[in-house]
Amino acid sequence: MRSHRTWLVLLGLALGLGACSADDGAEPWCGDSYCDPGETELNCPADCDFGCLATEFECDSGECIPPAEVCDGMEDCLDGSDESPDRCSNCEPSEFDCGDGTCIEAVQTCDGTDHCADGSDEAPALCDGCDADEFACGEGTCISETLTCDGQDDCPDGSDEDATMCASGCYLGEWECDNGTECIDETWVCDDELDCSDGSDEDATLCAQCVQYEAFLCDNQSDLIDQSLLCDGTNDCPDDSDELYCTPCESGEFTCDNGYCIPTGWACDGYNDCGDCSDETGC
Q1: Interacting residues of 277 by C-beta distance below 8 A, sequence separation 6+
Q2: pTM, entire model
Q3: Does a structural domain hold residue 229?
Q4: pLDDT (tens digit, 9 = 90+) per residue, 74-125?
Q5: Residue 164 structural domain
């Protein structure tokens, strides 16, 4: 509910009492130290802004509302300042505020696993709003992926400069080129195509051995989970595909060391299909 003072402000705007003028063309009303008819806190703060009572909350836009309406999930201020994240969240800049008030690391949002009890860290509105070349900030906005880990907070919550994320250089499922400035999909390493500008992803010494993957790509082709979560008895992919092809394997399938099942013909084909390289060991 809005206070009486807020409604008076809104009424004044609705009636078109926005501009200050003089009835006789001499002295304008606004600035004469009197709150004349037609003047409000918004259009003439010099005369009509008396501030809020000690028992009221003053919005950044000037209205006064009861303290009980601050951080109650409803915007009562015209500018929404009573529900601003900075005022209502108890989380650190590098954290995500779950819908129930708990905090998780911002880098744990949209990773295919529910870390918030209410699942708000995986909500479609939060996770599906950014393009492939964009980074999803902890509070939901999108920035260019090139702005992450550049030493400057581009996300309102600073999650693009998260220490854990930036220390590793690349995201989960990515491989860092030797030049230290590029990250490529880890499945592009040793695929006979140069993806790093320095060619380090096709280095002969590197490619003489199997390169283990850190991530598993869910069947929906959009969510990644840590490789250690594959076939662990818990559904971590939104489509449950991390638990679909697990031991016991059927006839004609190869059993990976991590419990994943692949067609027998994929073993020893020069490609890491298991993810842990067990299908390319001893060939």
Answers
A1: 210, 211, 212
A2: 0.40
A3: yes
A4: 788 888 888 776 677 677 767 888 766 688 888 788 787 888 888 878 776 5
A5: 95-168
